[in-house]
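Hey L., structure's done. Input below.
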Amino acid sequence: MVIGKFSGRLGLQQRVLPSYRAPFFDLLAGSCEGGMSLFAGMARKEESVKTGELKIANYKLGENLHLFGGAFYLCHQKGLLNWLADWNPDTLIVEANPRYLATSSAVKWMHARGRKVIGWGLGAPARSGKMIWSRFVNQFDVMISYSRRGADEYAALGFPREKIFVAHNSVASRPTFNIERSTLNVKPAIIFVGRLQARKRVDWLLRCCAELELKPSLVIVGDGPEREKLEALAKDVYPAAEFVGAKHGAELTPYFAQADLFVLPGTGGLAVQEAMAHGLPVIVAKGDGTQDDLVRAGNGWQIPPEDYGALIQVTREALSDVSRLRRMGEESLRIVSEEINIEKMVESFVRALNS
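Output:
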């Protein structure tokens, strides 16, 4: 696939540079004929975010001042305007989050020089102040949304629909491998991949497997603050569960290859797309809208968040029909091969840059 080009010089602001996003940024940088520089700071220690390394894009480390916490969290990025003056981009892309206090100054700096600023974000949650979000979003020239739901939310704030682009949130390239799964394992095999945090509801997954009549094998891939607690729970309710620690990239392939179904009972989870790239059907809790585009009736199930009964019911249904699981896995692979991958994501960004 040939990705289009942006002829100018691109500046891109992020709060942090997580490792999972680095391949996308480098691919985007390779599509910018004038080059690309990324400005980002460091996450709070308790976030445990692994900083990525860039091979093509320039990386300027800023200083993040983290203010307050929880629902009141704010972030001020020192050095943002100095970076803009040094890099002097033709177009700037910023995270569309009103909690980042330096954004408006960066927008004014660009507009004073007659240059375009693109906002990139998840959308505008209905529970947030509509007036604040409307004023914030409408300072941008173009919007890029992670999902169709997010695009609808920006349009509802009065942002022109023709200036909104959807770049489906992706962390994996188009698959170049194929895993053959002819029959279900003797015991159906469920896999979870992700950071072991309370919000991922791995505790529910353990209890769910214990309640199923057909006891599946269960592999938990990941590490995090809840691991010790979850391992203790597993000993009590589901000793067959296997905790293998954190795995990344090619390390994940053999675990996905041995699985029949990927389950994410809680919120978040970038591993959904990776599981689909390995031909797995998925069960996920409904989240911020990005999963609406990934998970459809043909390749998986979305369950209401915080609904343990739904998790049990849908997992039981999923494991009851092996031929359906195989068809759904094939559809997962088709979706990430043809529609949602970082190559397609870069294409959408380039279209927005050239709009």
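The mean pLDDT is 92. Residues 96 and 119 are 5 Å apart (CA to CA).

-- N.
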